[in-house]
């Protein structure tokens, strides 16, 4: 199977979002899935992803996927963050892909390439002000 | 334009991930984009999304998109969370879509439908143990 | 023993801060205790405290201490958050008590009592803008 | 003024906790101060503290207090985290000082000094499993 066919078989974000809707409905979990609860759960899971890195040096953190146990935890927490983000989007009726496309466009105006500070300019990424 | 054509025009997750790669490269921000920094930034942005809801009652939270200012903030923070999640995935070499598909499959085994506690069974969503 | 004597026996914040310094030194953990790592750990632990509440209704959340297991988790996570906050303060040389006293004074000017919105005024606590 | 007198003038944690109770009561903010809302606000503020450090190298992060603007932000966010932690403790009826003393005692048993991994043993602080 070539790469193109593999990509055709991979689920899309929308397909996964719908599977999560069906998953919650089958278990009657919708009453828990309020926007506020899902925003809290998203933050908790992002914290669990960060926990993997909290005591690592930058060098150890960059090699995190070389350790099979940590690599599994990273993939698992990425999945949890994405799951709650999609469930949050379902709960509030936001389509995350156009939301991100619009944000990138705003950031292209906000951080024009020529004037953008380089990495060595003092260590504050302009994103830091967002 | 019919719905099908609209979908064809919407960016895919992979296209947005690549745009973020190009955006960071053009501004020479890659040195900042370590896995540890991006996991921290993801958590910070998730907190900013939660901040919108922190003092709202469940009823107010459910109506959050009826307020244009809050609706804009919600879309903006969803975009930020997704952006940092995609940049994190780039930094560690994880494809988020198969990671989530695999997690849903594990959860289907872990939380079988017949025995799933209903919403009224005591208020603890089994996800709470994850 | 009267209440006054009990209070005299309770540790002060400064005594606990010093015990945490000694605890880390005895285990040679100081190299991990950078300001950045401790700020990350503090956020992670705050997320673990929030996790206890994420699926609870406001009513269930208000009765959280009636459940012995949850009450133990709450006390444990409060301790973890306070521990990392004190260790962070040690790492950056900030005394948290005067820092909080100064903040309360600024907030007394910022949110004067007569004009403060009441709870029924629309659901946004002015703290939300902080 | 000698050090002893300065310490006598500094507020205690309990005095600041009571000032926060009075502050919220005067502004009729108690309805917002549920355990769940305060746990969310605590996490949000911890994230704001982390935000200061997210793009900094370990070296830059360690020098954070040399920059007056960043030093002010650090003190301000420390105060916010401590304020919400104390308000949370008020809402659930937990005294944070004995809670932390008990946790330190448990950790002294859990991480005995002789067997504690040193900093160079592989980079995972045993706290990471907590």
Give your account of this protein's structure.
- Helix content of chain A is 65%, strand content 0%.
- With 130 residues, chain A is mainly α.
- In chain A, α2 crosses α5 and α3 packs antiparallel against α5.
- The longest helix of chain A has 25 residues.
- Chains in contact: A-B, A-C, A-D, B-C, B-D, C-D.
- The interface between A and B is large, with 72 and 72 residues.
Order of helices and strands of chain A: HHHHHH
Give the radius of gyration of chain A. 18 Å
Helix content of chain A: 55-70%
Beta-strand percentage range of chain A:
under 5%
Overall shape of chain A: globular
| Overall strand count of chain A | 0
Number of helices of chain A: 6
Distance, first to last CA of chain A: 43 Å
Main pleated-sheet profile of chain A: none
Unreliable parts of chain A: 1-6, 118-126
Query: Which class best fits the helix and strand makeup of chain A?
Result: mainly alpha
Which protein chains make the most extensive interface, counting residues with beta carbons within 8 Å of the other chain's beta carbons? A-B, 72 and 72 residues
For this entry, what is the oligomeric state of its chains?
Answer: homotetramer
Query: What's the rounded overall pLDDT mean of chain A?
Result: 87
Which terms would index this structure?
0% strand, 6 helices, globular, disordered N terminus, mainly alpha, 130 residues, homotetramer
Summary, kept brief:
The structure is a homotetramer of 130-residue chains. By secondary structure, chain A is mostly helical. Chain A has helices at 3-9, 13-26, 35-53, 58-62, 68-92, 96-110.
């Amino acid at each position: 199977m070539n790469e193109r066919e593999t990509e055709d078989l991979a689920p899309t974000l929308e397909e996964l979002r719908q599977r999560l809707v069906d998953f919650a409905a089958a278990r009657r979990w919708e009453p828990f899935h309020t926007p506020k609860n899902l925003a809290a759960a998203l933050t908790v899971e992002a914290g669990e992803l960060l926990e993997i890195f909290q005591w690592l040096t930058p060098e150890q953190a960059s090699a995190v996927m070389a350790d099979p146990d940590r690599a599994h935890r990273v993939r698992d927490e990425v999945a949890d963050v994405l799951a709650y983000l999609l469930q949050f989007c379902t709960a509030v009726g936001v389509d995350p892909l156009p939301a991100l496309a619009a944000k990138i466009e705003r950031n292209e105006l906000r951080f024009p390439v020529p004037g953008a500070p380089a990495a060595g300019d003092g260590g504050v990424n302009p994103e830091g002000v967002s």
